[in-house]
Amino acid sequence: MSLTRRQVTSAALAAVPVALGATGTAQAAQRRRTLYLAGDSTAAQKYTDAAPETGWGMALAFFLREHLEVANHAVNGRSSKSFVDEGRLEVIFEAIRPGDFLLIQFGHNDEKSADPTRYTEPWTTYQDYLRQYVDGARARGARPVLATSVERRRFDADGNAVPTHGDYPAAMRALAEEERVALLDVQALSIALWQRLGVEETKKYFNWTATEQDNTHFNPPGAIAVARLVTAELLHRRVLAHRDVRRLDEEVPESWITWPDAAA
Fold this sequence. Notes:
Layout: H1 5-12, H2 25-30, E1 33-39, E2 68-72, H3 80-85, H4 88-95, E3 101-105, H5 122-139, E4 143-147, H6 168-179, E5 182-184, H7 186-201, E6 206-208, E7 213-218, H8 220-236
Parallel strand pairs: 1-2, 1-3, 3-4, 4-5
Antiparallel strand pairs: 6-7
Helix pairs in contact: 5-6
C-alpha cells in the first residue's frame, strides 16, 4: 500500500517523543536522548484489538533509565525496503538528533520473495537498504545499531530450535563489520533462548491463545524476554553504559504491558 507523506507522518506521531520547547546550548545539552526503533511486527506497538500480542519494543523502556526515551516506529509487515519506500525512515530522520540512537531490525518481511514491494535479496538489496539507515543516522549525528531478526519458534523432530531467516542474519553481520556498526545478534541470542526453554515452554512466550497458535509474534513474557536480550546486548556492545540500563536481573511484571486504543 502506498501512503502519502501526510499519512505516514500522522501515523508516526504517537511514536515520536514530545519535543522540548526551549532551545539553546544549555537546554540542548540536557535534552533526553532518544532510541528510535525501526522494524517490523515483532517489535511494533500493539493495540487493544491485538492483545495479548506484544511487540518487544513495547517492553524496551522497562530496561532503560529515565534519561533515555524510546520512539518505537516499528510497523507490522514492513521490510527494510517498504519502510523506506513509504517514507517512514524519513520521518525518523526529521526527528532524530545528535546523540540519539537508531536501532534497526528487519528481515522477517524482506524474506517474502513473492511480494516485490517488500522483498530484498540478502547480499545485495537488503544490505543496500540497510546502508540508507546507517548513513542517514550518521549524517545526523546519531548512532546506528543493527539488530538481526529475532528468531521464530520452530523446532525439528528432535526438539532442536531451527533457524528460519536464511542468509539475512549473516548478511547483516557482514554489513555491520564492513561499516563498523554495532551489531546486536538477536537472532543467535533468541534461538539459544528458545533452545534452553524447549518445545513446550516456548509456547508461553509466543502469542499462543485459545484461537491462535502464532510462532512469530510474542505475548507479554516473550516481549519482555526479548527486550531484556536487546538491552543486555546494547550494554555488552558498549552502545549504552551501566548508568543507562536497569532491571536486567530483576523480574518485570507482565501487568506493566498495556495496549492502548488505536488512533482514529
